[in-house]
Amino acid sequence: MTQNNVLVAQSGGPTVAINSSLAGVIAATVESKKYDICYGALNGVTGILDERYLNLSQIVEQDSTIIDQIKSTPAMYLGSCRHKLPNFDDDSHPYEQIFSQFEKLQISAFFYIGGNDSMDTVLKLSDYAKKINSNIRIIGIPKTIDNDLCMTDHTPGFGSAAKYVATSILEISHDTYIYKVKSVTIVEIMGRDAGWLTASSALARNKYSMAPHLIYLPEVAFDKEQFIEDVKKQLKTTNNVIVAVSEGIRDKDGNYISAGETAEDTFGHAQLSGAGKTLEYLVKEQIGVKVRSVEINVLQRCASHIASKTDLDEAFVQGKKAVEFASNGVTAAMVVIKRLSNDPYTVEYDYAVIKNIANEAKSVPVEWINKEGNNITKELFNYLLPLIQGEVSIKYSNGLPTYMDVSHLHKRSEK
């Protein structure tokens, strides 16, 4: 019997919200009168090439609470990959494999949840589908803590990461304020090309603490000498200076402020390390006060215990919207959010053509950074604040959060 099935996969770096989008896809498929089975490919597009799948509809049928469990589980239930498809004009073999699998599983819609590089995959598969006159609907569902996808107001995963960053800065400030000695704490935050996440550190500020006292984003050229002067100026009015820096800060010549040599990943992106440590050594040498650097690193990506409810709710809706759009004939597109108001915070959902999104990046507008390049404006603060609102209820067992069993991912490598 001919079926009308969908396939979903996840790709790129993990977030708190990407599984919520997956849950939205599953829920919409189950509720749909147009689709029969929702399959999940393990480890992104490589799971299609290797024919590794889960029958997600069957899993939900066995336990109706699974969808809610997936929503509150961090990272990627289906696993991830960083696999760059070749241009099909140069090598069509992987495309032939993928579309052969689509036919075998009777797939009529494919959903890829991910960031910039994942949208490159959506674009290439969409273009190939057009070339071979395939009717398969291919839609991207956004996620990235970097918040750098174009054509959408913000991305799922960013709000929760921003909430974690702001909370960490607030807690670091409480840690440092207990000492009377002069000190500088430098917090390195993810953001290779866009400073959205580092900017969110400003949300930690309140009536008794202005930490972080200095914020440096990659959108503005970083000057080491000016940085030292900025820190010295702050030390005149406060004992404990807290600085937030993006991992991707660079000088006027475009060179990264990094402690080591940079390597490149599969997509040609610089893999950075040590901006905070470099500045720690600089402060120690030039100012001579107590100084330490803190690299939040992967902790900011999957902290479900402090997730933003707004973030998870919007991610779930975007997963459902992808299924709705596909059922209405939309393809070669990505689900997007349009903000209608900051206060009260209201949004609407739509889709945008994928060719206007893939391989592009959205930076923090320069007008949202102060003229000195060491702080953000009120406009950016107001943009960020609604995205971290609301708390998520997490189930605990033996004192720890209870998440979905992902042994189907890590046990495969033991074979």
UniProtKB/TrEMBL annotation:
Binding site for Mg(2+): N116
Enzyme Commission number, as recorded: 2.7.1.90
Gene3D superfamilies: 3.40.50.450, Phosphofructokinase domain (3.40.50.460)
Main location: cytoplasm
Keywords, alphabetical: Cytoplasm, Glycolysis, Kinase, Magnesium, Metal-binding, Transferase
One GO process term, biological-process aspect: fructose 6-phosphate metabolic process
Amino acids binding diphosphate: G13
Keyword Cytoplasm in record: yes
Active site residues according to the UniProt entry: D146 (proton acceptor)
Important for catalytic activity, annotated site positions: K143
The keyword Kinase is annotated on this UniProt entry: yes
Top EC category: transferase
Regulation acting on activity, per entry: Non-allosteric.
Any one GO MF annotation of this record: metal ion binding
Domain of life of the organism encoding this protein: Bacteria
Cellular compartment(s): Cytoplasm
Amino-acid positions noted as binding substrate in the UniProt annotation, renumbered to this chain: T144, I145, D146, M190, G191, R192, E247
Domain Phosphofructokinase stretches: 5-325
Catalytic activity from the UniProt record: beta-D-fructose 6-phosphate + diphosphate = beta-D-fructose 1,6-bisphosphate + phosphate + H(+)
Marked site: Important for catalytic activity and substrate specificity: D117
Pathway per the UniProt entry: Carbohydrate degradation; glycolysis; D-glyceraldehyde 3-phosphate and glycerone phosphate from D-glucose: step 3/4
Purpose of the protein: Catalyzes the phosphorylation of D-fructose 6-phosphate, the first committing step of glycolysis. Uses inorganic phosphate (PPi) as phosphoryl donor instead of ATP like common ATP-dependent phosphofructokinases (ATP-PFKs), which renders the reaction reversible, and can thus function both in glycolysis and gluconeogenesis. Consistently, PPi-PFK can replace the enzymes of both the forward (ATP-PFK) and reverse (fructose-bisphosphatase (FBPase)) reactions.
HAMAP family attached to this UniProt entry: Phosphofructokinase_II_B2 (MF_01978)
Subunit structure as annotated in this protein's UniProt entry: Homodimer.
Family: Belongs to the phosphofructokinase type A (PFKA) family. PPi-dependent PFK group II subfamily. Clade 'B2' sub-subfamily.
Protein's recorded name: Pyrophosphate--fructose 6-phosphate 1-phosphotransferase
Organism this protein belongs to: Lachnobacterium bovis DSM 14045
Name of the gene encoding the protein in the UniProt record: pfp
